[in-house]
Amino acid sequence: MHSSSDDGPDLRKEWLHQRTNGALSRFHDRTPLIYRKRIEVPQQVTEWVAGWGGGSLFLTGAIGVGKTHTAWETCRLWLKAFYGPDRPWNGAANIYTYRSTALFDALRPDGPDEIRRTLIKTLQEADLVYIDDLAAAKVTEWTQERLFEIFDERYINQRPVIVTSDVLPPNLGPVTGPRVASRLGEMCQGSIVLMEGDDRRKQVAA
Ligand SMILES: Nc1ncnc2c1ncn2[C@@H]1O[C@H](COP(=O)(O)OP(=O)(O)OP(=O)(O)O)[C@@H](O)[C@H]1O
Ligand SMILES: [Mg+2]
Questions:
Q1: Is 200 touching ligand 1 by the criterion CB < 6 Å?
Q2: What are phi and psi of 59, to 5 degrees?
Q3: Helix (H, G, I), strand (E, B) or coil at 97
Q4: What is the per-residue pLDDT for 89?
């Protein structure tokens, strides 16, 4: 019979294993169907996940190269690494994923103030925020100010974001406002991944 001191590490290992699987399974359930398929990610992405330096990741490239799919897979790998044995115990991971259009809509001034404030605070404090197609949405000065609140808080606390966009940070000013674009440039320094290749949708259709 094992003594309780022998059981301790095994029970902990089992508990950690279940915790990781539970988190990955919940994330899988909220991943859009076509992005659930496991794909290879560029080496820069693997290095970003392994580096854990508090930096952010920027995936750019032409239409259909695989930015969004890569970002979902990156979130999954990040989540797995979050619960990895080398990482300090940080509670449960919060990942928020948004299309820019839905995010900008949610930040509009015409909705209830309290709901918007709660969203801003949530996105300021989340462990990881992923915004898809940042340059795709139309923006107002009001939205830019709310985006600044979110990004500045994440910037000063070195909390990561993953952004996909066909426009690079230095040219994002007209969308995000110049202060967010400047911060994003620094946050993603060394982790701007240019994805190249043809439109994969055309390959599927061929
Ligand atoms: N590495 C990959 N391996 C296999 N299929 C992939 C890979 N990356 C993306 N795909 C597939 O290619 C198609 C386009 O991918 P995705 O939607 O990520 O492109 P995108 O760059 O975000 O396009 P857009 O600029 O229009 O938003 C999808 O069907 C996706 O599942
Ligand atoms: Mg996309």
A1: yes
A2: -105, 120
A3: strand
A4: 67
